[in-house]
Amino acid sequence: MARLQAEHVYKVFGRRPEDAVRRLEDGASREELRADGTTAAVIDASFSVDEGQIFVVMGLSGSGKSTLLRTLNGLLEPTAGSVRFDGQDLTSLSDKELRKVRSEKISMVFQHFALFPHRSVLENAAYGLEVQGVPRAEREKRATEALHLAGLEGWEKSWPDELSGGMQQRVGLARALATDADLLLMDESFSALDPLIRRDMQDQLLELQKTLKKTIVFITHDLNEAMRLGDRIAVMRDGRIVQIGSAEDILLTPANDYVASFIQDVDRSRVLTAGAIMVDVDEVLGSTSDNGEEIRTAEDFLAAAPATVPLDTPVAELFGPCSAGTVPVAVVDAAGAPAGAVPVQRLLSVLSEGGQPGGTTGQADAAKTDAGQKTDAAKTDTPKPDATKTKTADTRVVEAEAAQAETAGTKADADGKKTAADGKADVQPDGKPAGMTGGKPEGKVIAGA
Fold it and tell me: What is the CATH T-level fold of the domain 2-271+366-427, as seen in this structure?
């Protein structure tokens, strides 16, 4: 069941934003609006996130993904559309009601750690609970438990400047977990970390998710991170969601050339699974086993197969079994019943395809977007970039314009400062507290608020 639902969300900065939404609905382009001094940061975004799911929003810098995230907890008010959490329309709440929801039900972790330099690790982790008015003894108990979950047992009395970048981000994660919020919003949370530490944090999040089952929206520009973490992934371009699906859906059936250009360098063997590439057992029946006997039934196939693997086995682990004989590898479901087969020809074929728009490879569904999500292929398609270049000139222009647009839009947001979850800390329209000192000056935010 969906806990979070965004329906036809628009966020427009500049003059007469409501008129701009109507123009977009009538077919006006983002460039036409920009020529009139209006920036469309998010355009007609619709999606849902089920309980316990990690939903990743991926796109180039300035594609609108961080702006979209800030509309989910009311740090930015949508120009049009609605955001519902547990059936409650967050866009209809008063400021006081919204602050209560943010302090109790929604936690946020940002790219930069935003730890208070004058507070210990334990005090930083307990800050969100302090904002809620939780008594000192209880908040320290809960913060200590959260630090243990985040792998920081024994560091409670340390100071932020005594920690590495990865450890500081663990404190930010513990601060979010300590409040026991139902919805966790993570905006480029690991992108400032070194590659090895970043992977370690990804492992930590996945391990925590096995037991905590939080509903998570995770923002990233890193495709490999999206593929590793996301149960479902939304790809954004120029403010629009151009495709939503599982990692396998996006790898096997990219919606257009723009998505295909993203996935061309992905190690497909680490993302795709046996269940995604298998063929029907019927295709094996009638063939001959290695000892010359005919395979007539599914039971015959299981007996003749060189190996039996679960549906979620990574393709990288199938090379050895597939090369052990002429009979395909058997794929079984949770009950041990035959679900499909992976012939060696199929394995090599999938790895060599590279993802073509609109393909029908494997058992994955066709490229899809959530109900109500409009995708204008003419606006979203872009030629696949030359393999010898990291970015085409077009892509660089798109990134530059989008980044400039989102920056300009943030500054133009009406009403200026908002109030954070505690109702005291001033927050700029991009969700960062004003006036914080210590550590890196940019990107400061109260991670657990």
Answer: Rossmann fold (3.40.50)
Q: Which residue has the tokens 């190996």?
A: 307
Q: What angle do CA 383, 388, 393 make, to 5 degrees?
A: 50
Is the pTM for the entire model greater than 0.85? no
DSSP state at residue 368:
B
- How does pLDDT run across 80-135, given as a tens digit for each residue? 999 999 989 999 999 999 988 888 899 888 777 778 999 999 999 999 898 888 99
**Burial code of 423-441, b = ≥16 C-beta within 10 A, e = fewer?**
eebebbbbbbbeebeebee
CA distance 30 to 27: 10
Contact 341, 279 (CB under 8 A): yes
- The Cα–Cα gap between 102 and 108 comes to 9
The three-class DSSP label of residue 13 is strand
Q: Give the domain ranges of the chain.
A: 2-271+366-427, 274-353
- Architecture category of domain 274-353 in CATH: Alpha-Beta Complex (3.90)
